[in-house]
Write a structure and sequence with these properties.
The complex is a heterodimer of chains A (about 250) and B (about 450).
Chain A lengths: L3 E10 L2 E11 L4 E5 L6 H9 L5 E9 L2 E2 L5 H7 L1 E4 L6 E5 H15 L7 H14 L4 H5 L1 E2 L5 H15 L3 E5 L7 H13 L6 E6 L4 H4 L4 E6 L2 E6 L1 H10 L2 H6 L1
Parallel strand pairs in A: 3-10, 3-11, 6-9, 9-10
Antiparallel strand pairs in A: 1-2, 1-4, 4-5, 7-8, 11-12
Chain B lengths: L2 H4 L2 H13 L8 H16 L14 H4 L12 H14 L5 E6 L2 E2 L13 E5 H6 L3 H8 L6 H9 L4 E5 L9 E7 L6 E10 L4 E10 L7 E10 L4 E9 L5 E10 L4 E8 L4 E10 L5 E10 L4 E10 L5 E10 L4 E10 L7 E10 L5 E10 L5 E9 L3 H9 L4 H17 L5 H18 L1
Parallel strand pairs in B: 1-5, 4-6, 5-7, 6-8, 7-9, 8-10, 9-11, 10-12, 11-13, 12-14, 13-15, 14-16, 15-17, 16-18, 17-19
Antiparallel strand pairs in B: 1-2, 3-4
Helix pairs in contact in B: 3-8, 9-10, 10-11
Classes of the chains: A alpha/beta (about 250), B alpha/beta (about 450).
Chain lengths: ~250, ~450
């Protein structure tokens, strides 16, 4: 059984149709890149998978481990193992990062019928992951993402990914707003989480990110559907030729 | 003109209640005369209504309708119910004094072995004794408004607390108001705390109801004087029965280089009004007054503050937060007066409301009246809903809708709670907020 099956998905936002019959299959252990020009529907796809309100699915379905993902609330999806690394992680003043991490982790574990993490185990785990991602302890004491740089926000997303151990990670424009050093740290963090039991969908506008996170498959989106799929060579071809050919094709 | 003809039935009933109660209320001679004058002052206005500017959002004629007769003194069964209620709200490490149905409850209170420099007497004792100086202080605010006047006329008990000059109290004082009974009745209480020069004290006030207590009325007032160089930390937690009424007033005066840190939280009562007048009468003083209303159902809570800067070089900060769900209604009225000559006043007020339902209502009315030209004063007010993008972020991380809301609500009210200087008191406020969130489900 595929981990994620998106079948002929049509999605509207208010009166505009954004996805016009998109299909995608992701198996355990695979890393897929989704590329495409601005406005092609890449972020819409990630939002619909995570369950963001405001999108109306008019046709098609999404199966996650064979279950109807669209029937689940965002928190149920999270507990089942879906993780969206946000393009723009929000700042939450007044909620300490540590409190947030522990509340979220325990909420997911509770939903799965697992016991809550003990405080020492939790702290040990957070510290280990934080260290590997070059996240200083004082960042963890601050409000969630409050005053964080773009790179720090993305590293905080990867920290959560490492902590929650999801089976599907969707990385929405992880490279946006990052300089090359920040990008390398973030990509190293993601690569460390690659595993035969985990799949990743890397959404990006630029080929550059794929030098660091090398995908097994590359899909090109244009105007709300996948117009071409291939292996990592496809990303390099795109880098040379641009998206214009696909905009016409769609 | 015959005033009696203009009276409504409920006003006439109250006149009768006062006429009967007058002879049994503590204090004779000048005290009884002062009560009579106060009752007349009350009668000139009656229950405040929306045509009185200060009560525009809290029309007691509509919301409260009538003043109930005074509660009977608690019997053994009532004290037992009160003791049960107290268990949930007891605070470790404090000196507790308790009023049950408006009457001092010695067995629930700790008045033995007072720290040196601390004096506590009951209001009843003070009114019955002949200390005219104290009587004057106790009746001083009678004309502040009609509900204070009514309280002056009817007050039965409370505490008169004196902290001697130079005394730093190690143990916080905790005044607990408990309504014990199912019979609808009113309690009229008044307390006074005098913090002497260079003294420091901590005061917590709790308002709670026993399980049987439902639609009772609390009429309370607190008179505070903070001497030169003294400091008072103050927290009040209103967790009355959800059918109860609570009208409380505070009249606070600060000397020079004094410090008053006060915080109030309303989670209980059907209708509550807390009105405080804080007069900064000595130079170099500082006031922090903060509050939180957490309301749902049809709860109505009104916090009305008047900060009166009469002298130069004083600072005041007001941070107020309201979280309103269902058909709840929160009112915040904050007025800052900077009198002529009160130069270098630094006064700021910020009020924010969070509405969790379409029918929830929050009224924020900040007012500045500035008569000095070299001051820093400001106010801000916002009202809004929970940020959808924050909610989605939290839900995408596994939090249920209620858990995500709870975390954001705690963060929102946290900005006011953080202003509580005393760690233990801050923890109390956090726990009270968590009780409200837990009850919300």
């Amino acid at each position: 059984m595929a981990l994620l099956e998106v079948k002929d998905l049509q999605v509207r936002v208010e009166d505009r149709e954004i996805l016009h019959g998109l299909s995608l299959t992701v198996n355990q252990g695979e890393v897929h890149a989704i590329m495409g020009p601005n406005g092609s529907g890449k972020s819409t796809l990630s939002h619909v998978i995570a369950g963001k309100p405001g999108y109306e699915v008019t046709s098609g379905e999404i199966l996650f481990k064979g279950e109807d993902l669209l029937a689940m609330s965002p928190d149920e999806r999270s507990a089942k193992g879906v993780f969206l690394a946000f393009q723009y992680p929000v700042e939450i003043p007044g909620v300490a990062t540590m409190t947030f991490l522990r509340t979220a982790l325990n909420a997911q574990r509770k939903a799965r019928g697992e016991s809550e993490f003990s405080t020492p185990d939790f702290l040990k785990k957070v510290r280990e992951v934080a260290k590997s991602l070059n996240i200083p302890q004082d960042m963890l004491r601050r409000g969630v993402n409050v005053g964080f740089s773009g790179g720090e926000k993305k590293r905080n997303e990867i920290l959560q990914m490492a902590l929650f151990e999801p089976s599907l990670c969707i990385l929405d424009e992880m490279d946006s707003g990052l300089d090359i050093d920040a990008l390398r740290i973030a990509a190293d963090g993601v690569n460390a989480l690659r595993s035969p039991k985990r799949a990743m969908v890397v959404i990006t506008h630029y080929q550059r990110l794929l030098n660091y996170i090398v995908p097994d498959f590359v899909h090109v989106m244009s105007k709300g559907r996948v117009v071409k799929s291939g292996d990592k060579q496809l990303a390099l071809e795109l880098e040379a030729s641009g998206y214009a050919q696909f905009e016409d094709a769609a | 003109m015959n005033l009696a003809l203009a009276k409504t039935d409920t006003a006439r009933a109250l006149s009768d209640i006062f006429a009967i109660a007058r002879d049994r209320l503590p204090g004779a001679g000048p005290v009884a005369d002062a009560r009579q004058r106060a009752f007349e002052a009350y009668e000139r206005v009656g229950l405040p209504h929306r045509r009185i500017e200060d009560w525009k959002y809290t029309d007691l004629r509509v919301l409260m309708r009538e003043v109930l007769p005074s509660a009977a003194a608690p019997d053994a069964a009532a004290l037992k119910r009160a003791a049960t209620a107290l268990k949930i709200h007891a605070i470790a490490g404090v000196r507790r004094v308790v009023l049950v149905d408006g009457v001092f409850a010695p067995k629930l209170s700790e008045l033995d072995n007072l720290e040196s420099g601390l004096g506590i007497r009951t209001l009843r004792d003070v009114l019955e004794a002949g200390d005219t100086g104290l009587h004057e202080q106790l009746f001083a605010p009678e004309n502040f408004n009609s509900m204070v006047a009514l309280n002056s006329a009817m007050m039965t008990d409370g505490f008169v607390i004196e902290v001697a000059d130079g005394t730093a109290l190690t143990q916080p004082l905790h005044i607990v108001h408990i309504a014990s009974g199912a019979a609808p009745a009113a309690m009229f209480t008044r307390s006074l705390i005098r913090v002497g020069k260079a003294a420091t004290a901590t005061l917590v006030e709790s308002y709670i109801g026993a399980e049987a207590a439902k639609a009772y009325q609390v009429h309370d007032s607190l008179i505070v004087s903070i001497g030169d160089g003294a400091r008072l930390d103050h927290v009040r937690l209103t967790e009355d029965s959800r059918e109860a009424f609570n009208v409380s007033s505070a009249v606070v005066t600060l000397g020079a280089h004094a410090h008053f840190n006060t915080f109030g939280m309303n989670t209980g009562s059907l209708v509550s009004r807390y009105q405080a007048v804080i007069a900064v009468a000595g130079e170099g003083s500082r006031v922090e007054t903060n509050g939180v209303n957490l309301l749902n159902g049809r709860q109505h809570a009104d916090t009305t503050l008047l900060l009166d800067h009469a002298v130069p070089n004083c600072t005041s900060r007001e941070i107020f937060r309201a979280v309103v769900d269902d058909r709840g209604h929160s009112v915040f009225q904050g007025r800052i007066i900077v009198r002529p000559g009160a130069q270098k006043t630094d006064a700021k007020m910020m009020t924010r409301a969070l509405l969790l339902s379409d029918e929830a209502e929050a009224d924020n009315k900040p007012e500045l009246e500035i008569f000095a030209d070299d001051v820093t004063c400001g106010h801000g007010a916002t009202t809004g809903a929970l940020d959808e993008s924050l909610l989605f972020y939290l839900r995408a991380r596994g939090l249920s809708e209620k858990e995500a809301q709870a975390l954001l609500i705690q963060a929102f009210v946290g900005e006011a709670i953080e202003q509580i200087a005393n760690d233990a008191l801050r923890e109390l406020a956090i726990l009270a907020a968590q009780r409200w969130l837990a009850a919300r489900g």
